[in-house]
Amino acid sequence: MHGIHRTSKVVLGCVAFGIFWVLAVFPTVPFMPVGRTAGSLLGAMLMVLFRVISPEDAYAAIDLPIIGLLFGTMVVSIFLERADMFKYLGNLLSWKSRGSKDLLFRVCIVSAIASALFTNDTCCVVLTEFILKVARQNNLPPQPFLLALATSSNIGSAATPIGNPQNLVIAVESGISFGQFLLGVFPAMIVGVLTNAAILLCYFWKYLSVEKDQEGGQPAGPEVVADDEVTSHRFTPARMSHVSSLNPDDMDCISEPIIRSNSVRSTSANENLRSRSVNSEADIQLAIKSLRASSMSHEMVEVSTVTDRRDEGASSRKFTRTASQQRSVIIEDSPPSPASNGEKDKEDEVAEKRWRVFVWKTAVYLITLGMLIALLMGLNMSWTAITAALVLLALDFTDAQACLEKVSYSLLIFFCGMFITVDGFNKTGIPNTLWELVEPYSRIDSAKGVALLAVVILILSNVASNVPTVLLLGTRVAASAAAISHDSERKAWLILAWVSTVAGNLTLLGSAANLIVCEQARRAQFFGYNLSFWSHLRFGVPSTIVVTAIGLLIVTSY
After folding, report:
1. Cα(164)–Cα(115) distance, rounded to whole angstroms?
2. Residue range(s) defining the domain that contains residue 285
3. What pLDDT is recorded for position 499?
4. The Citrate transporter-like domain covers which part of the protein (predicted)?
Protein backbone atom coordinates (compact mmCIF):
# COMPACT_ATOMS: atom_id res chain seq x y z
CA MET A 1 0.00 0.00 0.00
CA HIS A 2 2.81 2.33 0.86
CA GLY A 3 4.44 1.54 -2.49
CA ILE A 4 1.23 2.41 -4.37
CA HIS A 5 0.94 5.68 -2.49
CA ARG A 6 4.56 6.44 -3.28
CA THR A 7 4.05 5.68 -6.97
CA SER A 8 0.95 7.87 -7.21
CA LYS A 9 2.82 10.69 -5.52
CA VAL A 10 5.62 10.45 -8.07
CA VAL A 11 3.20 10.35 -11.01
CA LEU A 12 1.06 13.24 -9.75
CA GLY A 13 4.15 15.28 -8.91
CA CYS A 14 5.48 14.76 -12.42
CA VAL A 15 2.10 15.79 -13.87
CA ALA A 16 2.07 19.00 -11.81
CA PHE A 17 5.64 19.82 -12.79
CA GLY A 18 4.89 19.01 -16.44
CA ILE A 19 1.98 21.48 -16.47
CA PHE A 20 4.21 24.11 -14.87
CA TRP A 21 6.94 23.45 -17.44
CA VAL A 22 4.63 23.71 -20.45
CA LEU A 23 3.11 26.99 -19.27
CA ALA A 24 6.51 28.42 -18.30
CA VAL A 25 8.13 27.64 -21.65
CA PHE A 26 5.04 28.17 -23.83
CA PRO A 27 2.91 30.72 -21.93
CA THR A 28 0.25 31.00 -24.67
CA VAL A 29 -0.52 27.34 -25.37
CA PRO A 30 -3.94 27.05 -27.06
CA PHE A 31 -5.51 24.73 -24.48
CA MET A 32 -4.63 27.01 -21.53
CA PRO A 33 -3.26 30.45 -22.50
CA VAL A 34 -2.96 31.74 -18.93
CA GLY A 35 0.70 32.81 -19.01
CA ARG A 36 3.76 31.99 -16.92
CA THR A 37 2.64 33.54 -13.64
CA ALA A 38 -0.69 31.73 -13.50
CA GLY A 39 1.02 28.56 -14.71
CA SER A 40 3.48 28.79 -11.84
CA LEU A 41 0.68 29.17 -9.28
CA LEU A 42 -1.23 26.33 -10.93
CA GLY A 43 1.77 24.03 -10.59
CA ALA A 44 2.17 24.99 -6.93
CA MET A 45 -1.52 24.46 -6.21
CA LEU A 46 -1.48 21.03 -7.86
CA MET A 47 1.53 19.99 -5.78
CA VAL A 48 -0.49 20.77 -2.64
CA LEU A 49 -3.78 19.28 -3.91
CA PHE A 50 -2.05 16.08 -4.99
CA ARG A 51 -0.44 15.91 -1.53
CA VAL A 52 3.02 15.81 -3.01
CA ILE A 53 3.87 18.59 -0.59
CA SER A 54 2.05 19.80 2.53
CA PRO A 55 0.69 23.37 2.78
CA GLU A 56 3.21 24.17 5.51
CA ASP A 57 6.11 22.85 3.41
CA ALA A 58 4.80 24.80 0.43
CA TYR A 59 5.03 28.11 2.30
CA ALA A 60 8.42 27.13 3.70
CA ALA A 61 9.67 26.44 0.16
CA ILE A 62 9.32 30.12 -0.77
CA ASP A 63 12.77 31.67 -0.43
CA LEU A 64 11.99 35.09 1.06
CA PRO A 65 15.59 36.43 0.88
CA ILE A 66 15.51 35.95 -2.90
CA ILE A 67 12.09 37.60 -3.18
CA GLY A 68 13.32 40.52 -1.06
CA LEU A 69 16.49 40.93 -3.11
CA LEU A 70 14.50 40.82 -6.34
CA PHE A 71 12.01 43.40 -5.05
CA GLY A 72 14.75 45.75 -3.84
CA THR A 73 16.67 45.67 -7.12
CA MET A 74 13.44 46.30 -9.04
CA VAL A 75 12.69 49.46 -7.04
CA VAL A 76 16.27 50.72 -7.40
CA SER A 77 16.09 50.12 -11.16
CA ILE A 78 12.83 52.08 -11.35
CA PHE A 79 14.45 55.07 -9.66
CA LEU A 80 17.52 54.84 -11.89
CA GLU A 81 15.23 54.90 -14.90
CA ARG A 82 13.45 57.98 -13.54
CA ALA A 83 16.83 59.60 -12.96
CA ASP A 84 17.63 59.15 -16.68
CA MET A 85 20.47 56.71 -16.09
CA PHE A 86 19.43 54.59 -19.06
CA LYS A 87 18.92 57.64 -21.24
CA TYR A 88 22.53 58.60 -20.60
CA LEU A 89 23.61 55.05 -21.39
CA GLY A 90 21.69 55.30 -24.65
CA ASN A 91 23.39 58.56 -25.54
CA LEU A 92 26.73 56.96 -24.79
CA LEU A 93 26.07 54.43 -27.53
CA SER A 94 25.87 57.06 -30.28
CA TRP A 95 28.26 59.69 -28.89
CA LYS A 96 31.03 60.30 -31.45
CA SER A 97 30.42 56.92 -33.02
CA ARG A 98 32.73 56.02 -35.89
CA GLY A 99 30.42 53.79 -37.86
CA SER A 100 28.28 50.68 -37.72
CA LYS A 101 30.99 48.35 -36.42
CA ASP A 102 31.94 50.79 -33.68
CA LEU A 103 28.28 51.08 -32.71
CA LEU A 104 27.92 47.29 -32.56
CA PHE A 105 30.93 47.03 -30.26
CA ARG A 106 29.53 49.78 -28.02
CA VAL A 107 26.17 48.03 -27.76
CA CYS A 108 27.95 44.88 -26.56
CA ILE A 109 30.03 46.67 -23.91
CA VAL A 110 27.37 49.07 -22.60
CA SER A 111 24.61 46.44 -22.40
CA ALA A 112 26.93 43.96 -20.64
CA ILE A 113 28.02 46.43 -17.96
CA ALA A 114 24.51 47.80 -17.49
CA SER A 115 23.10 44.29 -17.11
CA ALA A 116 25.65 43.39 -14.46
CA LEU A 117 24.49 46.35 -12.36
CA PHE A 118 20.79 46.71 -13.19
CA THR A 119 19.72 43.18 -14.35
CA ASN A 120 19.57 42.02 -17.94
CA ASP A 121 15.79 42.28 -18.23
CA THR A 122 15.75 45.95 -17.22
CA CYS A 123 18.59 46.75 -19.59
CA CYS A 124 16.78 45.12 -22.51
CA VAL A 125 13.50 46.88 -21.74
CA VAL A 126 14.99 50.38 -21.77
CA LEU A 127 17.60 50.06 -24.54
CA THR A 128 15.83 48.06 -27.26
CA GLU A 129 13.86 50.89 -28.86
CA PHE A 130 16.74 53.34 -28.62
CA ILE A 131 19.02 50.91 -30.46
CA LEU A 132 16.32 50.37 -33.09
CA LYS A 133 16.01 54.12 -33.52
CA VAL A 134 19.72 54.69 -34.02
CA ALA A 135 19.93 51.79 -36.48
CA ARG A 136 16.96 53.03 -38.54
CA GLN A 137 18.18 56.62 -38.57
CA ASN A 138 21.47 55.54 -40.07
CA ASN A 139 20.09 52.96 -42.51
CA LEU A 140 21.68 50.07 -40.62
CA PRO A 141 20.24 46.53 -40.37
CA PRO A 142 18.64 46.15 -36.91
CA GLN A 143 19.29 42.41 -36.51
CA PRO A 144 22.99 42.51 -35.49
CA PHE A 145 22.35 45.26 -32.94
CA LEU A 146 19.35 43.49 -31.40
CA LEU A 147 21.33 40.26 -31.14
CA ALA A 148 24.22 42.20 -29.63
CA LEU A 149 21.90 43.67 -26.99
CA ALA A 150 20.23 40.36 -26.07
CA THR A 151 23.35 38.17 -26.02
CA SER A 152 25.65 40.71 -24.36
CA SER A 153 23.03 41.46 -21.70
CA ASN A 154 22.86 37.78 -20.82
CA ILE A 155 26.64 37.41 -20.72
CA GLY A 156 27.12 40.61 -18.72
CA SER A 157 24.48 39.66 -16.16
CA ALA A 158 26.55 36.61 -15.19
CA ALA A 159 29.16 38.82 -13.49
CA THR A 160 27.19 39.80 -10.37
CA PRO A 161 24.60 38.24 -8.04
CA ILE A 162 22.13 41.00 -8.95
CA GLY A 163 22.55 40.58 -12.70
CA ASN A 164 19.77 38.01 -13.18
CA PRO A 165 17.33 35.89 -11.13
CA GLN A 166 19.32 32.65 -11.24
CA ASN A 167 22.37 34.43 -9.87
CA LEU A 168 20.23 35.74 -7.01
CA VAL A 169 19.29 32.15 -6.20
CA ILE A 170 22.91 30.99 -6.41
CA ALA A 171 24.22 33.83 -4.24
CA VAL A 172 21.64 33.21 -1.51
CA GLU A 173 21.86 29.41 -1.58
CA SER A 174 25.66 29.24 -1.72
CA GLY A 175 26.48 32.05 0.70
CA ILE A 176 29.13 33.39 -1.70
CA SER A 177 29.72 37.09 -1.04
CA PHE A 178 29.17 39.75 -3.69
CA GLY A 179 32.91 40.39 -3.97
CA GLN A 180 33.85 36.72 -4.33
CA PHE A 181 31.15 36.24 -6.94
CA LEU A 182 32.41 39.26 -8.87
CA LEU A 183 36.04 38.13 -8.76
CA GLY A 184 35.11 34.63 -9.87
CA VAL A 185 32.96 35.49 -12.89
CA PHE A 186 33.84 39.06 -13.95
CA PRO A 187 37.02 38.12 -15.91
CA ALA A 188 35.07 35.43 -17.78
CA MET A 189 32.33 37.95 -18.49
CA ILE A 190 34.74 40.49 -20.01
CA VAL A 191 36.40 37.89 -22.24
CA GLY A 192 32.99 36.43 -23.11
CA VAL A 193 31.56 39.80 -24.16
CA LEU A 194 34.61 40.58 -26.31
CA THR A 195 34.42 37.12 -27.89
CA ASN A 196 30.70 37.54 -28.56
CA ALA A 197 31.34 40.95 -30.13
CA ALA A 198 34.04 39.47 -32.36
CA ILE A 199 31.69 36.68 -33.49
CA LEU A 200 28.97 39.25 -34.21
CA LEU A 201 31.36 41.35 -36.29
CA CYS A 202 32.54 38.33 -38.26
CA TYR A 203 29.00 37.03 -38.75
CA PHE A 204 27.53 40.37 -39.88
CA TRP A 205 30.62 42.00 -41.42
CA LYS A 206 29.16 41.96 -44.91
CA TYR A 207 25.83 43.45 -43.84
CA LEU A 208 27.49 46.21 -41.84
CA SER A 209 29.90 47.04 -44.68
CA VAL A 210 27.13 47.32 -47.29
CA GLU A 211 25.69 50.34 -45.50
CA LYS A 212 29.07 52.01 -45.62
CA ASP A 213 29.28 51.55 -49.40
CA GLN A 214 25.78 52.88 -49.93
CA GLU A 215 26.71 56.13 -48.23
CA GLY A 216 29.29 56.91 -50.89
CA GLY A 217 32.23 55.37 -49.12
CA GLN A 218 31.64 57.26 -45.89
CA PRO A 219 31.08 55.36 -42.67
CA ALA A 220 27.47 55.18 -41.69
CA GLY A 221 28.14 56.58 -38.26
CA PRO A 222 25.11 56.99 -36.04
CA GLU A 223 24.21 60.57 -35.37
CA VAL A 224 23.79 61.70 -31.81
CA VAL A 225 20.18 61.76 -30.70
CA ALA A 226 19.14 64.75 -28.65
CA ASP A 227 18.56 64.21 -24.95
CA ASP A 228 14.93 65.17 -25.13
CA GLU A 229 14.25 62.53 -27.78
CA VAL A 230 15.53 59.58 -25.75
CA THR A 231 13.02 57.93 -23.47
CA SER A 232 12.95 54.63 -21.73
CA HIS A 233 10.04 52.93 -23.44
CA ARG A 234 8.57 55.11 -26.19
CA PHE A 235 10.41 57.29 -28.65
CA THR A 236 9.20 60.09 -30.92
CA PRO A 237 10.18 60.44 -34.57
CA ALA A 238 13.38 62.30 -35.30
CA ARG A 239 12.88 66.06 -35.59
CA MET A 240 15.10 68.77 -37.02
CA SER A 241 15.40 72.10 -35.33
CA HIS A 242 14.93 75.15 -37.55
CA VAL A 243 17.57 77.21 -35.79
CA SER A 244 20.14 74.93 -34.28
CA SER A 245 22.08 77.68 -32.59
CA LEU A 246 19.33 78.34 -30.09
CA ASN A 247 19.29 76.42 -26.85
CA PRO A 248 16.00 74.48 -26.59
CA ASP A 249 16.20 74.53 -22.80
CA ASP A 250 15.88 78.31 -22.87
CA MET A 251 12.82 78.01 -25.08
CA ASP A 252 11.05 75.99 -22.41
CA CYS A 253 11.36 78.41 -19.58
CA ILE A 254 11.93 81.95 -20.98
CA SER A 255 9.60 84.01 -23.16
CA GLU A 256 9.81 87.74 -23.85
CA PRO A 257 6.62 89.83 -24.34
CA ILE A 258 7.02 90.80 -27.99
CA ILE A 259 4.13 92.17 -30.05
CA ARG A 260 4.28 91.55 -33.79
CA SER A 261 2.72 93.65 -36.52
CA ASN A 262 2.42 93.33 -40.29
CA SER A 263 3.43 96.93 -40.84
CA VAL A 264 5.50 99.28 -38.75
CA ARG A 265 3.20 102.12 -39.67
CA SER A 266 -0.06 100.42 -38.70
CA THR A 267 -2.16 101.89 -35.92
CA SER A 268 -2.28 98.67 -33.88
CA ALA A 269 1.49 98.46 -33.92
CA ASN A 270 1.88 102.00 -32.58
CA GLU A 271 -0.46 101.17 -29.72
CA ASN A 272 1.16 97.90 -28.73
CA LEU A 273 4.90 98.49 -29.06
CA ARG A 274 5.82 98.30 -25.39
CA SER A 275 8.86 96.43 -24.21
CA ARG A 276 12.30 96.74 -22.79
CA SER A 277 15.35 98.02 -24.61
CA VAL A 278 17.50 95.38 -26.23
CA ASN A 279 21.13 96.42 -26.24
CA SER A 280 22.94 93.11 -26.55
CA GLU A 281 23.08 90.00 -28.69
CA ALA A 282 21.42 87.97 -25.94
CA ASP A 283 18.35 90.22 -26.04
CA ILE A 284 18.05 89.78 -29.78
CA GLN A 285 18.08 86.01 -29.32
CA LEU A 286 15.29 86.34 -26.77
CA ALA A 287 13.26 88.14 -29.42
CA ILE A 288 13.90 85.33 -31.87
CA LYS A 289 12.86 82.75 -29.30
CA SER A 290 9.52 84.46 -28.78
CA LEU A 291 8.96 84.63 -32.51
CA ARG A 292 9.61 80.91 -32.79
CA ALA A 293 7.11 80.22 -30.03
CA SER A 294 4.44 82.12 -32.01
CA SER A 295 2.94 81.44 -35.42
CA MET A 296 6.27 82.34 -37.02
CA SER A 297 7.98 79.35 -35.39
CA HIS A 298 8.25 77.47 -38.67
CA GLU A 299 9.93 80.27 -40.65
CA MET A 300 13.62 80.92 -41.03
CA VAL A 301 14.36 84.04 -39.05
CA GLU A 302 16.90 86.59 -40.12
CA VAL A 303 17.80 89.20 -37.62
CA SER A 304 18.80 92.62 -38.76
CA THR A 305 19.48 95.31 -36.28
CA VAL A 306 19.10 98.92 -37.13
CA THR A 307 20.42 101.23 -34.49
CA ASP A 308 19.60 104.90 -34.72
CA ARG A 309 22.27 107.29 -33.70
CA ARG A 310 21.79 108.41 -30.22
CA ASP A 311 21.02 112.05 -29.55
CA GLU A 312 20.32 113.32 -26.09
CA GLY A 313 17.16 111.72 -24.83
CA ALA A 314 16.93 109.43 -27.88
CA SER A 315 16.68 105.71 -27.37
CA SER A 316 18.07 102.87 -29.45
CA ARG A 317 15.74 100.87 -31.66
CA LYS A 318 16.25 97.43 -33.15
CA PHE A 319 14.24 95.61 -35.76
CA THR A 320 13.76 91.88 -36.23
CA ARG A 321 12.62 90.89 -39.73
CA THR A 322 11.56 87.69 -41.39
CA ALA A 323 12.77 86.94 -44.87
CA SER A 324 9.46 85.46 -45.99
CA GLN A 325 6.87 87.99 -44.85
CA GLN A 326 8.99 91.06 -43.98
CA ARG A 327 7.31 91.34 -40.61
CA SER A 328 8.90 93.76 -38.20
CA VAL A 329 9.17 93.95 -34.49
CA ILE A 330 10.29 97.09 -32.78
CA ILE A 331 11.61 96.86 -29.29
CA GLU A 332 11.89 100.09 -27.40
CA ASP A 333 13.03 101.21 -23.99
CA SER A 334 10.35 101.17 -21.40
CA PRO A 335 10.35 101.14 -17.65
CA PRO A 336 10.09 97.70 -15.98
CA SER A 337 6.52 96.46 -15.93
CA PRO A 338 4.79 94.05 -13.55
CA ALA A 339 4.72 91.52 -16.40
CA SER A 340 8.51 91.57 -16.74
CA ASN A 341 8.88 91.11 -12.99
CA GLY A 342 6.57 88.13 -13.18
CA GLU A 343 8.69 86.66 -15.93
CA LYS A 344 11.80 87.06 -13.81
CA ASP A 345 10.08 85.26 -10.95
CA LYS A 346 9.11 82.51 -13.36
CA GLU A 347 12.71 82.26 -14.54
CA ASP A 348 13.90 81.92 -10.96
CA GLU A 349 11.26 79.30 -10.27
CA VAL A 350 12.34 77.23 -13.29
CA ALA A 351 16.00 77.53 -12.30
CA GLU A 352 15.17 76.38 -8.78
CA LYS A 353 13.18 73.44 -10.14
CA ARG A 354 16.10 72.39 -12.32
CA TRP A 355 18.42 72.58 -9.34
CA ARG A 356 16.11 70.37 -7.27
CA VAL A 357 15.99 67.80 -10.09
CA PHE A 358 19.78 67.84 -10.31
CA VAL A 359 20.13 67.30 -6.56
CA TRP A 360 17.54 64.49 -6.64
CA LYS A 361 19.29 62.68 -9.49
CA THR A 362 22.63 63.00 -7.74
CA ALA A 363 21.14 61.54 -4.56
CA VAL A 364 19.70 58.57 -6.50
CA TYR A 365 23.09 57.82 -8.04
CA LEU A 366 24.88 58.15 -4.70
CA ILE A 367 22.41 55.84 -2.92
CA THR A 368 22.80 53.26 -5.69
CA LEU A 369 26.57 53.54 -5.43
CA GLY A 370 26.28 53.10 -1.66
CA MET A 371 24.22 49.95 -2.19
CA LEU A 372 26.89 48.48 -4.48
CA ILE A 373 29.63 49.34 -1.97
CA ALA A 374 27.63 47.70 0.83
CA LEU A 375 27.21 44.58 -1.29
CA LEU A 376 30.95 44.50 -2.01
CA MET A 377 31.59 44.78 1.74
CA GLY A 378 29.66 41.55 2.24
CA LEU A 379 26.51 42.89 3.92
CA ASN A 380 23.30 40.89 3.62
CA MET A 381 22.28 41.27 -0.02
CA SER A 382 18.49 41.18 0.30
CA TRP A 383 18.32 43.65 3.19
CA THR A 384 20.88 45.93 1.53
CA ALA A 385 18.72 46.11 -1.61
CA ILE A 386 15.52 46.62 0.42
CA THR A 387 17.18 49.37 2.48
CA ALA A 388 18.35 51.19 -0.65
CA ALA A 389 14.85 50.90 -2.12
CA LEU A 390 13.18 52.32 1.00
CA VAL A 391 15.68 55.19 1.25
CA LEU A 392 14.90 56.12 -2.36
CA LEU A 393 11.16 55.95 -1.69
CA ALA A 394 11.57 58.23 1.33
CA LEU A 395 13.83 60.59 -0.61
CA ASP A 396 11.16 60.97 -3.30
CA PHE A 397 8.95 62.63 -0.66
CA THR A 398 5.74 61.72 -2.51
CA ASP A 399 3.19 58.94 -2.32
CA ALA A 400 5.13 55.76 -3.16
CA GLN A 401 2.17 54.12 -4.87
CA ALA A 402 3.07 55.44 -8.33
CA CYS A 403 6.57 53.98 -8.05
CA LEU A 404 5.54 50.70 -6.47
CA GLU A 405 2.97 50.11 -9.21
CA LYS A 406 5.87 49.71 -11.64
CA VAL A 407 7.30 46.76 -9.72
CA SER A 408 6.81 43.49 -11.60
CA TYR A 409 4.72 41.71 -8.99
CA SER A 410 3.85 39.05 -11.55
CA LEU A 411 7.52 38.04 -11.60
CA LEU A 412 7.62 37.86 -7.79
CA ILE A 413 4.49 35.68 -7.78
CA PHE A 414 5.99 33.53 -10.53
CA PHE A 415 9.02 32.92 -8.32
CA CYS A 416 6.85 31.98 -5.34
CA GLY A 417 4.91 29.43 -7.37
CA MET A 418 8.09 28.11 -8.96
CA PHE A 419 9.76 27.58 -5.58
CA ILE A 420 6.81 25.46 -4.43
CA THR A 421 6.56 23.52 -7.69
CA VAL A 422 10.27 22.72 -7.89
CA ASP A 423 10.36 21.73 -4.22
CA GLY A 424 7.45 19.36 -4.80
CA PHE A 425 9.16 17.88 -7.85
CA ASN A 426 12.31 17.33 -5.79
CA LYS A 427 10.24 15.39 -3.25
CA THR A 428 9.18 12.93 -5.94
CA GLY A 429 12.77 11.68 -6.09
CA ILE A 430 13.00 11.93 -9.88
CA PRO A 431 15.72 14.64 -9.93
CA ASN A 432 17.82 12.66 -7.44
CA THR A 433 17.58 9.51 -9.52
CA LEU A 434 18.61 11.32 -12.70
CA TRP A 435 21.47 13.11 -10.95
CA GLU A 436 22.83 9.85 -9.54
CA LEU A 437 23.16 8.57 -13.10
CA VAL A 438 25.12 11.62 -14.24
CA GLU A 439 27.06 12.63 -11.12
CA PRO A 440 29.97 10.12 -11.33
CA TYR A 441 30.85 11.48 -14.79
CA SER A 442 30.31 15.19 -14.12
CA ARG A 443 32.63 15.92 -11.22
CA ILE A 444 34.55 19.14 -11.65
CA ASP A 445 37.96 17.69 -10.75
CA SER A 446 38.49 16.75 -14.40
CA ALA A 447 38.08 18.51 -17.73
CA LYS A 448 35.68 15.83 -18.98
CA GLY A 449 33.57 16.19 -15.86
CA VAL A 450 33.33 19.96 -16.26
CA ALA A 451 32.43 19.57 -19.94
CA LEU A 452 29.68 17.03 -19.21
CA LEU A 453 28.29 19.16 -16.38
CA ALA A 454 28.23 22.18 -18.70
CA VAL A 455 26.34 20.22 -21.36
CA VAL A 456 23.76 19.06 -18.80
CA ILE A 457 23.25 22.61 -17.52
CA LEU A 458 23.09 23.99 -21.06
CA ILE A 459 20.42 21.56 -22.21
CA LEU A 460 18.38 21.69 -19.02
CA SER A 461 18.45 25.51 -18.97
CA ASN A 462 16.87 25.62 -22.42
CA VAL A 463 14.41 22.82 -21.68
CA ALA A 464 13.29 23.71 -18.15
CA SER A 465 14.52 27.37 -18.07
CA ASN A 466 17.57 28.57 -16.17
CA VAL A 467 16.05 29.37 -12.76
CA PRO A 468 14.37 25.95 -12.30
CA THR A 469 17.63 24.37 -13.50
CA VAL A 470 19.55 26.17 -10.77
CA LEU A 471 16.96 25.15 -8.17
CA LEU A 472 17.10 21.51 -9.30
CA LEU A 473 20.86 21.16 -9.73
CA GLY A 474 22.35 23.71 -7.34
CA THR A 475 22.57 21.78 -4.09
CA ARG A 476 23.39 18.52 -5.89
CA VAL A 477 26.28 20.00 -7.87
CA ALA A 478 27.58 21.73 -4.73
CA ALA A 479 27.38 18.54 -2.66
CA SER A 480 29.27 16.61 -5.31
CA ALA A 481 31.98 19.27 -5.44
CA ALA A 482 32.18 19.55 -1.64
CA ALA A 483 33.35 15.95 -1.54
CA ILE A 484 36.43 17.11 -3.42
CA SER A 485 37.27 20.29 -1.48
CA HIS A 486 35.74 23.45 -0.05
CA ASP A 487 37.14 25.55 -2.89
CA SER A 488 35.63 23.13 -5.38
CA GLU A 489 32.19 23.75 -3.89
CA ARG A 490 32.45 27.49 -4.54
CA LYS A 491 33.83 26.80 -8.00
CA ALA A 492 30.86 24.52 -8.74
CA TRP A 493 28.40 27.30 -7.87
CA LEU A 494 30.26 29.74 -10.13
CA ILE A 495 30.29 27.23 -12.99
CA LEU A 496 26.55 26.82 -12.54
CA ALA A 497 26.09 30.60 -12.59
CA TRP A 498 28.18 31.06 -15.73
CA VAL A 499 26.78 28.21 -17.81
CA SER A 500 23.12 28.64 -16.83
CA THR A 501 23.32 32.34 -17.74
CA VAL A 502 25.17 32.03 -21.05
CA ALA A 503 22.87 29.12 -21.94
CA GLY A 504 20.15 31.72 -22.39
CA ASN A 505 21.81 32.77 -25.65
CA LEU A 506 21.34 29.37 -27.28
CA THR A 507 17.73 29.92 -28.38
CA LEU A 508 15.25 32.77 -28.38
CA LEU A 509 13.27 31.00 -25.63
CA GLY A 510 16.34 30.41 -23.48
CA SER A 511 16.16 33.73 -21.66
CA ALA A 512 13.52 36.25 -20.67
CA ALA A 513 15.87 38.99 -21.91
CA ASN A 514 15.75 37.49 -25.41
CA LEU A 515 11.96 37.53 -25.39
CA ILE A 516 11.91 41.12 -24.11
CA VAL A 517 14.15 42.29 -26.96
CA CYS A 518 12.04 40.38 -29.48
CA GLU A 519 8.73 41.77 -28.21
CA GLN A 520 9.99 45.33 -27.70
CA ALA A 521 11.42 45.37 -31.22
CA ARG A 522 8.24 43.96 -32.75
CA ARG A 523 5.99 46.47 -30.96
CA ALA A 524 8.16 49.54 -31.52
CA GLN A 525 5.87 52.29 -32.79
CA PHE A 526 8.06 53.76 -35.52
CA PHE A 527 10.99 51.37 -35.91
CA GLY A 528 9.45 47.90 -35.53
CA TYR A 529 11.46 44.80 -36.45
CA ASN A 530 10.70 41.09 -36.14
CA LEU A 531 13.58 39.06 -34.68
CA SER A 532 12.68 35.49 -35.60
CA PHE A 533 13.47 32.29 -33.72
CA TRP A 534 15.65 30.91 -36.52
CA SER A 535 17.62 34.11 -37.06
CA HIS A 536 18.50 34.04 -33.37
CA LEU A 537 19.29 30.31 -33.42
CA ARG A 538 21.73 30.58 -36.34
CA PHE A 539 23.88 32.97 -34.36
CA GLY A 540 23.04 31.74 -30.86
CA VAL A 541 24.34 28.18 -31.22
CA PRO A 542 27.95 28.93 -32.25
CA SER A 543 28.19 31.97 -29.99
CA THR A 544 26.91 30.10 -26.92
CA ILE A 545 29.24 27.14 -27.41
CA VAL A 546 32.36 29.28 -27.93
CA VAL A 547 31.61 31.79 -25.14
CA THR A 548 30.68 29.05 -22.66
CA ALA A 549 33.87 27.11 -23.36
CA ILE A 550 36.16 30.14 -23.07
CA GLY A 551 34.43 31.30 -19.89
CA LEU A 552 34.71 27.87 -18.29
CA LEU A 553 38.48 27.92 -18.74
CA ILE A 554 38.63 31.18 -16.78
CA VAL A 555 36.08 30.31 -14.08
CA THR A 556 37.64 26.91 -13.32
CA SER A 557 41.07 28.51 -12.97
CA TYR A 558 39.80 30.89 -10.24
Report:
1. 8
2. 248-331
3. 96
4. 32-503
